[in-house]
Amino acid sequence: MSTLVCVPITVDDLAPALADAQLARDGGADLVEYRIDECFSGTDDPDEERLILQLVADSPLPCIVTCRPTFEGGAYDGPEDARVSLFEKLGTAEHPPAYIDVELQAYTRSANFRQKVNLAVQHPKQQRSVRTRLILSIHDFDGRPSDLTRRLADAWAEPAASVVKLAYRARSLRDNLELFELLREGPKPMIALGMGEFGLMSRVLAPKFGGFLTFASLRDSTATAPGQPTLSDLLGMYRFRSIGPETLVYGVIGWPVGHSMSPLIHNAGFEAVGHDGVYLPLPIAAGANDADNATSLKGTLGALLDDRRLGLAGASVTLPFKKVMRDLAPVEGWQEDDEVTALGAANTLARDEARFCLRNTDHTGLIAPLETTLGSLDGRAIAVVGSGGVARTAAIALARCGARVTVYARTHRRAVEIAATHASINAAPLGDLQGSSADAYINCTPIGMDGGPEPGGTPVPIDAIERSPTETVFFDTVYNPIDTPLLEAAGERGRRVIDGVQMFVKQAAGQFRRWTGKGAPVELFDRLVRERLGG
Known about the structure:
The protein is an alpha/beta fold. Helix content is 39%, strand content 20%. Strand 9, helix 10 (262-273) and strand 10 (277-283) form a beta-alpha-beta unit. It is elongated. It has an eight-stranded parallel β-sheet. A six-stranded mixed β-sheet has the order 10-9-11-13-14-12, sandwiched between helices.
């Protein structure tokens, strides 16, 4: 059976709930979950019961009815006998729900509760035909329950339970691996989901491991649990319907990665070339320094790579793990290419049969757009602004192409450290940009970035832009916004510009070819990023 997609709907009134259910059906969902705990008070109000019965009867999709009590993260705080009475009426209604969801904690609280709930659902020992089934659920919004094994055993042993649901807050990506094992090994159909940003993998990869269903919200604002993807992202960007047991897994490793554009373009690319893969955010919490980052990366990535059934076949690597990834290479026995060795950092993990290797495609993202605009870089004077990882990569890659590079940085010591890596790299104080002269200026700082320290700033002084020859190129590695203040200022003065989208797309194309063996649909990548950013 294929993994179902369920859209949860918080019910306030009949018409809006049915309208959302229709949107869910139109969007490709298989069923909806009506969360009635905010509209059902348990005070013997006949209008409340009529609304809920009518909602189920008119539902455009098969439905789950959930009245979640406050003790398990919901909003219902009325009497339990009223909730059970509603379940009984739903189960024997002319148009019953496909499932009712009851918490294991409530179900096992008393024999009377169990008996009455069993009357509402199809029990294997009952002869009468009842069309409603029981989902027995376990939730923990803090983390993995310490008594999880016992709780699952109790849920699996309950004859009336058709489906067992487990959802707890994932504390790291490693929690997903246990959830996948439960999906594979559980004696009953299961829903096993990690909540929060670390748990997205469990939601998207449910069909790879035989999950009964996964949840997706109609919109970000209507998610009923932290980390729920939207229906459009799940079915569209992540191509949920195409995921199966053999689907290879890829992702972007970093912190944070929630707003990365990489899942958007790589998943579209996999579809375009017919590659059976899915690309996910892979957040790994950063530490206070490189040593902490190495510990965090080694523990989490090692667990993912060791799980053969997961099928992690490759990854993009971003801040703050590019240098740390390269440092782990000799420890893990990974091969590295010449660019990784020269740059001291890796942005790509790829699998060659049984062995993993490190690559760096950042240099391609930097060099290719410049060569398209300037031609050969041999002998060209290039100004690199900044002294972080991007600046280091740019300076070394340019020097290896024969360019004469000057690194301008606020922290002069760091610029000197970069200059020490190659004879063709010099260091200069940031203030020297005012009187500088170069064929191209490359911004490798966050100045001009939305949400950055100086979103309205220009890393190169306006006077320096105005004095530059008209053929001078201004290249911004920032891609959000596409037209940064630097590029706007240079473009308004007739100078040539290269935006950060070009760099992002070129380096992603190098990764894509390394993973799939096929050329990336570069124009598709570029269009998707620009559409998403509104450019």
